[in-house]
Amino acid sequence: MDFETSMRISSSGMRAHRAWMNVLSANLANVNTTRGPDGKPYQRRTILYESVPYAGSFQEAMESALEDGLQQVDVVGIVPDGRDFRRVYDPSHPDADEDGIVLLPNISAVEEMANLLDATRSYEANLAALNMAKQLALKSLELGK
């Protein structure tokens, strides 16, 4: 595997984890949103990833097929989570129904923060791999002097 390939694979991981952090941030920001543009409570969102073969040149694809079949990560989409809304009794709330029940997003701030920490650490790991590949490429250029 050459330096460019390792940098592209690391950067695909960074893009995927940055997208995950954006989704988690939106979930945290809307933890108490009872009414969105559609009139319903905010629904927790999650991200779908796909592992795809490294998309380099034809020669690189042939060489990587002989290796372990290098994979990079793509974000397939952002989809609503299927969790039911939390039902809270609060008759004074403006969005309460006739029985005084308010529907709130079923988002656990603790779970989202733990996921955000995981996404941040994964992003940092990909960044470290990218920086190491960059340093190795620079060192190999120095050897040629």
Automatic annotation (TrEMBL):
Residues 105-141 form the Flagellar basal-body/hook protein C-terminal domain. It is found in: Bacterial flagellum basal body. InterPro entries: Flag_bb_rod_N, Flg_bb/hook_C_dom, FlgC. Keywords: Bacterial flagellum, Cell projection, Cilium, Flagellum. One of its GO terms (cellular component) is bacterial-type flagellum basal body, rod. It comes from the Bacteria. GO terms for biological process: bacterial-type flagellum-dependent swarming motility. It holds the Pfam family Flg_bbr_C. Residues 7-35 form the Flagellar basal body rod protein N-terminal domain. The keyword Aminoacyl-tRNA synthetase does not apply. Belongs to the flagella basal body rod proteins family. NCBIfam families: FlgC (TIGR01395). The basal body constitutes a major portion of the flagellar organelle and consists of four rings (L,P,S, and M) mounted on a central rod. The rod consists of about 26 subunits of FlgG in the distal portion, and FlgB, FlgC and FlgF are thought to build up the proximal portion of the rod with about 6 subunits each. This is Flagellar basal-body rod protein FlgC. It comes from Desulfoglaeba alkanexedens ALDC. The gene is flgC.
